[in-house]
């Protein structure tokens, strides 16, 4: 009787295991591969130049649970249009500058426009000085010439030479750690800014670049948080490491995710965290611990601070607290689609001293883009 049970058990395990393996293999094989030609991956490569062909249609039917990314030209056009909304101030300034023979009232109008775009007083003042000088030197109201001056000034402000690539280099394992660790990305920021959404969108981008990704749900504060990340995992076809227990230690989930990624030989592990803003000491404790335990596997190469562009200057104080609590390596500016305050890009880089690496331009899976200074300024000027 007993040996029969054992044999039946073994057969059951083989059948279920084989089925799961086949299913996983099928899903992996069907992950869309739209931009894998850009190796080694830099986040600048995510959006190729306009007019580039997409071959994704040739890749076969997407799996039922996976959504296929939209075509690259379509996506570019859509994201540009949304950026233009964030930069209405560029066009407004340009139209005043093009009036020629500017009166003090005109200059005041320009100043007001710049201030309401969240450029901040300091930047606005120096930009105003610069524009006054340049326009005088130019001595013309020729729209093209004025546009070139404004474009150059705005571009300077956005600091076009900063390195905005994501560090996706797989690190050497920590002493005593097993396996080949994945490049680790930790997502931090105030609640509601878009951390979880960005984890999902970023995983999608990485998968489209042929990277294998593991997501870690280290926001254990609410059960719904892990659920939300799991839904993203299903959408984009990557594994999510989570704890079933609400209130579990976030650091231990982050550790498990890093370990699982190393065991799977995955390329990247992206860890989501809780966003409640406690006092600074509590925040330092929690984020510091998450980072420390992940580093038992390997160093964390990228800590992305997620900021909501619509909160503008008001979000800056909280952002400062986060960046002091944990060494931030880059900024993700979300909800740029829902604001006319695109000047926040400049303010945030200046005050935190780290580059904006990614921008969120909507709630959809394909609404994340690398931040491209020239494209941004051109969108501002229409
Ligand atoms: N319009 C727009 N909405 C966004 C963007 N990014 C995120 N959102 C929305 O913002 C809301 C909050 O996003 P989450 O990803 O849950 O934010 P979170 O930082 O994880 O929030 P907590 O887990 O509560 O700390 C959701 O409704 C998202 O769809 C964006 O770039 N544009
Ligand atoms: Mg979240």
UniProtKB/TrEMBL annotation:
GTP binds at residues 189-196, 272-276, 334-337. It is found in: Cell membrane; Cytoplasm. Residues 34-69 are annotated as: Disordered. It is a peripheral membrane protein. The keyword Metal-binding does not apply. Residues 355-368 form the SRP54-type proteins GTP-binding domain. Its EC number is 3.6.5.4. It comes from the Bacteria. GO terms for cellular component: cytoplasm; plasma membrane. It is an enzyme of class 3 (hydrolase). One of its GO terms (biological process) is SRP-dependent cotranslational protein targeting to membrane. PROSITE patterns: SRP54 (PS00300). InterPro entries: AAA+_ATPase (IPR003593), P-loop_NTPase (IPR027417), Signal_recog_particl_SRP54_hlx (IPR013822), SR_rcpt_FtsY (IPR004390), SRP/SRP_N (IPR036225), SRP54_GTPase_dom (IPR000897), SRP54_N_sf (IPR042101). Pfam families: SRP54, SRP54_N. The keyword Zinc-finger does not apply. Part of the signal recognition particle protein translocation system, which is composed of SRP and FtsY. This is Signal recognition particle receptor FtsY. It comes from Actinomyces oris. The gene is ftsY.
